[in-house]
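Final report, closing paragraph on structural work. Over the funding period we assembled a curated collection of sequence-structure pairs, and we close with a single example.
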Amino acid sequence: MLCLGLSGGLDKVHEYRPALSHTFLHDGAAVLVRDGRVLAAVEEERLNRIKHSNKFPAQAIRYCLAAAGAQLKDIDRIAFYATESYCNAMLRLLFGSETQSGIPLDARTLLQLMLSQEFDTEIEPSRLSFVSHHHAHATSTFAMSGYDEGLVLAIDGGGDFLSGMVAIGSGRRLTQLHTFPEDGSLGLFYLEAIKCLGYGLFDEYKVMGLAPYGDPSRFRVLFQQFYELKENGGYKIHLNDIAPALERDIHVRRKGMPFTQEHKDVSAALQEALERIVFHVLRHHREVTGMKRLCLAGGVAHNCTLTGKLLYTGLFDDIFVQPAAHDAGCALGAALMVSEEQGRPAPRERLQHVYWGPALGDDDAVEREVAAWRGHIDVQRSANVASVVAEWIANGSVVGWVQGRSEFGPRALGNRSIVADPRPAKNKDRINAIVKKREGYRPFAPSVLEEHAAEFFDLPKSAGAFPFMNFVVRVRDCKRSVLGAVTHVDGTARLQTVSRRSNPRYWELINEFHKRTGVPVLLNTSFNNNVEPIVQSVTDAMVTFLTTDLDALVIGSLLITKRVAAPEDWAALRVSLPAYTSLRRTPDHVTAECREIVCETYTTFSDGGAVRISPDLFELLHGIKGDATLGELLAHVKGERRDAIILELRQLWEKRRICLRPAATNLGDLRDQAHATG
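Its predicted structure, as stored:
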């Protein structure tokens, strides 16, 4: 029995519908299960290279099918991550007045149409299911927890006109106890408050990292005006009061401005308020139900400061957070729900790993693809990768580490990671400078050998392994100076424990570092720059390596370093526009009497923004037919003008507004990517 779960949007990667930008449609993903067991799962962003993609997850579906050796006609049930009534209401709201949009206002018809067009096959309506958004969240965590029974809390920004639910999981059943209305959304509560800090949707985790620098008492009374705690674990949020009060009482930060202590104190008060509300809900339902185990999902469950503090309270004997707790995880829940409906429930086993994404392929295939970049890199194959790379890291190198199948969810867990020495505090600033380009206050995470975790971290007695970076824990006082690059300002760290069983290659790398340094820990951060999702393919890894100052890259058994490329090596690269990038000329008023024509690239996703380019480059890119080599593009451009255009092209490449690739490298067709998924 094959069941496919989907999350995501309604338009294709090259399309742009402004009405979709602020709806529930984001974090597209596909998850395929056979008889309740996950075969394959990947977020669409990893493949179409759009962060938090709200596009239809066509490429993710293709990967899942290829991983199973199946076609869409072989799938027994296809489940979408929201109810049909909600989807229909959203379609009417968004497109009901657009008679020329061509979009069916019936969700089942629309989903059937998109699948049929994308996969050239007819889909019977009876094979399509629409599931409750928060039941999908709840199922995704309870079914993966391994518990026979437990309390389940799903909380997020919204979906299905709700913002969360509390349920009891028992056996294979979920019994709903309580739901939270849209205007009680804790996700929107957090989002509304962080706007005054210059942040927006998907930036919530940044504020969580800023909060330890602040004092919550300064704005505690102000934030208490934004919510009420009621009897029986209830609460009320005053969403409409937040922005006016904050704009009145603090100096609002605009994007790009420095953070003041006031902003840090606001972050601390916000984090404290969120924790107070969630603890209020959970204490009541723990007392009423008697449940000693807790399952969490929904975007708010990614607040690992909250989950870490909850762990230390001892309120529950054990806590499980589904690692893809955001809306991509609803694709997992949806697939498991319809599989159970068909009599194929998930086995009650604790989730051990989420290495469900596309694999790299065998070493020979990887080597052929890497070799296409000759002239830009030096490559050698090694039988002792872990030993060599551990030596590099111990000597100060920052390394891209790409192995096996990619992780499902937002965390790099040792297969698509940047790794470095966790000891020197300066490494945090160095990694931010050479690749991440992010706020300096944000911490990096440690990966520790599972068997040594308690030596370095003060772990609750009830806690076992921490394989998914879902909890912030305390670094032992005596180890904080040792782990200077991964210990946050408050003495905590977002921990990943690494098991030899689940990831032997990554375990071996950390173990080799341990042999050299006495420290069984590595700094681990996601392998991407600040404008892209985590890398997926060999090509993604090569591009990020060549457009940052990483010291080295490891893909499978290949050790890769940079060399100074000759002009002819650059000239041989092919230039093309990504599917999500377009060109346009727009008028811009310089003064009331004068205006000029601005040339720019823009994207098909709402938060991509426009990037100005020179008229010369605009003409060259506009004239590309398919793709062309850089040499062909610049054949008739000479001197300083040529140098300026090459610099501009490389800057656009760093921002992922153009593609540069060797002639021998394909674009990573998913059917090729999906061999060797085992």
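The chain has 23 helices and 29 strands. The CA atoms of residues 214 and 265 lie 4 Å apart. We thank the funder for supporting this effort.
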